[in-house]
Request: fold
Amino acid sequence: MSNDPNYRSVTCQASPNIALIKYWGKRNDEFILPDNDSLSITLDLNDLYSYTTVSTSSSMTSDTFYFDGIQQTKLSGRMQKVLNEVRRRSNKDNQIKFVEIRSHNTFPESTGLASSASAYASLAIALTNLFNLDNPQSTAAYLARIGSGSAVRSVYGGFVRWSSEGECLSSCIYPVDHWSELRIIILIFNSSKKPVSSTDAMQRTRETSTLFQARLSTINEKIEKLIEAIKIKDFNTFAEIVMKDSSQFHAVCMDTYPPVIYLNEQSKHLIDLVHAYNRMDGNKIMKVAYTFDAGPNPFCFIRQEHVEEFLRLLKYFYPTTNDDVHGEVSDVKEEFSSIKLPIMANAVERIVRTKIGSGPKIIP
Ligand code: PMV
Reply:
């Protein structure tokens, strides 16, 4: 392929984002226009990412897609939609014929870890660069969005807002270093595929949930309060808004008919554990906040100064026979004995420690 003078290739790395205020509901399925604004944190590229290489040459005779090195029999409808939009936007002398896409993730798919967000963000940015498309940032955001809604937020680093109005694109509201002591600890309780896809579940929610409208009417006020808390780094307010939005989102899923249930026994245990842990100091300072996407695995937000203690708490309540899960964390005895919750042995498959990231990167 490298002998072909028309061969060109671009690689991009992007990470997932974790919604602090969830997107749930599409008012337009084709263009993925959301019912509500959402707010997220993009994770650090050093810990979790999708890596996508796109290439083109005059000798290619069809679009091809390799995932983890294995050629897929066909491209998904969404991937095809993204490529068609790229073809529509690329000008005459840069006419694209076919594209080869090679992608891999460093984390399990379909676990509520938003692997589609990082995958489509990296694909969108790589394609925008490969074909020199106009207005690269907004074009990449648009392409990412029509691939997978929440991917629009992974196009930027730091704290990102996805607007439900106007062009419905995303923007960075605070950069990566704004709140540098914030850390994210992800507990993987279960890495199997989610029972209902977010696309199907959202549609079912729109059709059947009465709580859904009530949720929509409070979102903007909640986002403004959260942005203010982030601005002044007020972790107590941040934690309360984030946890309440997670619970409200899952309440709406429960209010959907038939109900959509993403949380499991371990998720509920973690929720109780976080509240009990925060109460240990009389609730004056919140140490941890959790949020759950469309899956049972919690994303915990915490300031750096509390990380070691929280990891000891996790080791105490989630002991495991797999030494890799807790790594170097020291053993605990009496420290958390005031918390009267059951010990859940072998509940955790993996713990990922990460932080806010600066956004996608083109790999030379
Ligand atoms: O972009 P999708 O279709 O994977 O939907 C994501 C929905 C949530 O993860 C539950 C919330 C969000 O805003 O990311």
